[in-house]
Amino acid sequence: MVVAGALMALWLAAAVYVLVTGLKLRRRGHHQREQADRLAALLQSAPAVPMLIRPDGRIEAPARLAGWLGLPAVPAYLSELTSEGGCFDVADSAALSDDILSAQRGAKNFSRAVTVRGSSRALLVKGAPAGPDLANPGAAILWLFDATESQTRIATLEREGALLHDALEALSGLIEAAPLPMWHRTADLKLSLVNSAYVRAVEAQSAADVIGQQIELFETIDGLPPPEAARIALDKGEVLTRVVPATLGGERRMMQVVEVPMGRAGVAGYAIDKQDYESARTEQARTVASQRDMLDRLTAAVAQFGPDKSLVFWNKAFVSLFALKPEHLVDRPEFERVLDRMREGERIPEHRDFPAWRSERRGWFTAQEASEENWLLADGTHLRVFAQPMPDGGLLLVFEDRTEHIQLSSARDTLLRVRTATFDSLFEGSGVFAADGRLHLWNNRFRAIWGVEEEVLAAHPRIDDFMTSLANRLERPPQASLVRELMRSCTVDRKQRNGRIGFADGRTFDFAAIPLPDGNALFTMLDVTDSRRIEHVLREQNEALAEADKVKTAFLANMSYDLRTPLTSIGGFAEMMKAGYAGELPDTAQEYVAAIIEASAKLSGLIDTVLDLTQGEAGTLPMERAPLDLSAFIAACRDRWAVATAAKKIELVVDIKPSTGRIMADERRLVQALDKLMENAVRVVPEGGRISLHSDGQVGGARLIVSDNGPGMDAKSQARAFDRFSRMNDAERGDAQGLGLPLARQLVEAHGGTLSLISEPGEGTVFTMELPRGDLPRLGK
């Protein structure tokens, strides 16, 4: 029992132990099963699908792999997966087979992207040798990832990368080929990249040399070193543009510097040569100012509108023409407002629908070409309006006042009609020949002279053909060629030609070929038939008068000599009677004798004057020339006339200049001429008057002036002063001195000089005697 009890106890203990152990194993198995289920669930939800390939090629993989491969079930062997008709493309299948073989035999890991045949799914396969816990040696474990999205993204990134690479290459080439200096600074503001233009600008060897030595293009930028100036752009985070002077190729130029902050990448910059631009802008400003100054001087009204249709320029003529106030224009009014102002001043044409008309004029701004209009204003002003659209969208308006032009045009038309009527009514025959010799214009008198029909002239014949066809109508037909040559010379040489032609019917014409300013020639013909006859008669009469004048001169000379003999006897006997040779005479007889002597002296002087005049006219007046000192000559004249002037209480003033000098002259004849002038002055000057005798000279001659403050002479008397015939008539009226002035002029002219007078009624008379020096001998010889 004890033994049985012990056995039972052992059995019970063993049973309890077994039960406890079983329960533990059960709990452990249950736990491991739960772990396996969790691992299986985790594996099923993993982004990768495992595939175990055993050494014999058998495949172990989850069922969901079939869905990825587009198959109803997972292939059993590798050959089904990588065969030519398998799940992947041929190239991917072959490469994957090689990778798996390398992993099985060479224990190499691999990674490859493959594309599932017939779909857009891409799988990333990562393989490695399988551990001994999974399979026998020679097995491989593959992890397949669905890389469709990532591969698509990768392909997109590769394409974008290629495009960016190409763009970068193009941009780099563009920067390198750019004609303006460009550079890049890193975050520490050191130069890291420059282009060839930069290298040339700083005259460096290469870009590496520039970067290595940190050669700056500018000395300073706004007073700061270039890196510090770039820091300002980087700190502000905005693009900075500045104009900075720089020395390029030994020449100082203005450069526009632009620096662009790029955040952590640094600062990029470039420089634009603005020297030519600034010069061009300055020149343009000067040109615009000059043009506006010129436009301001124009008589035509000019107004310019900008792209915004506001008034930007106007000249003085614009303000004046349209009666505008400058204060209304300084605010740059718009185009429509300016038209309104012009309408208020009644300086635009009247229209029923003014807004529509104004709207149409607004189209000037967008017109393809210039427009031109004519405006007739209410006050009769005619304006020519020229509208020129500008390239910048503006408009230039030019207003030309054509009123005077139109009036002149009307007057010209009237003048042309008057000229045509006048030309047709001329007594002379006139024809205008063009430069090519063709008859261009003619009047009725021209046609009548030549006796041709209007149709002949209307054909505009050439001068050669015209004269040849009418040569038989001339008194001497060869004269037709002379007329042709004269007309040709007038047209070519531009010289006036004259001549005379006679017609076979007895008519005679004077003709003239006159060059006109337009290159044509005017041919005029004047009928001188009657005047020629009269001229012939007058010529005969003139010859007869000349012969009679010779007879008269000879008669006067002979008469003078014949009268001198009895006059001398009368004077001599009268002197003897006055001296008492005939006895003592009573007082009355003494007065008679004195009168006889005075009359004889006057008559003798008149006879001498007439004789001198006739001899001078005949050219036989004797002249004895010798050196004459004019100063002594004038002093003697003063002494001779001192008594006569004192008797009449006339003041005699003598002014002898040192330049008077000497002349070659006949002293007796010159005394005679000067005395005639003094005699005339004493005769006309009233008591208490004044006579001035003045002399001066120059190298070539001397001048004697006799002036008085007498009553003077009117224009008619001055014209007759030196006319011996009119003076002889004065002598007949009792003026015994009537021939004195003509004789004085004749004597002065016989010396090669001139005698002139200036006189005004009530202002006196001035006689001026101009005498040449002559061939004077040197002093001392």
From TrEMBL:
UniProt key word Kinase: yes
Annotated CDD domains: HATPase, HisKA
One MF term in the entry's GO annotations: phosphorelay sensor kinase activity
Top-level class of the enzyme under EC nomenclature: transferase
Transferase keyword on record: yes
Keywords, ordered alphabetically: Kinase, Phosphoprotein, Transferase, Two-component regulatory system
Domain Histidine kinase, residue spans: 558-775
EC number, UniProt record: 2.7.13.3
Pfam families given in the database record: HATPase_c, HisKA, PAS_7
InterPro entries cross-referenced by the UniProt entry: HATPase_C_sf (IPR036890), HATPase_dom (IPR003594), His_kinase_dom (IPR005467), HisK_dim/P_dom (IPR003661), HisK_dim/P_sf (IPR036097), PAS (IPR000014), PAS-like_dom_sf (IPR035965), Sensor_HK_Regulatory (IPR050736)
PANTHER family named in the record: HISTIDINE KINASE 1 (PTHR43711:SF1), TWO-COMPONENT HISTIDINE KINASE (PTHR43711)
The name this protein goes by in its record: histidine kinase
Lineage, top ranks: Bacteria, Pseudomonadati, Pseudomonadota, Alphaproteobacteria, Sphingomonadales
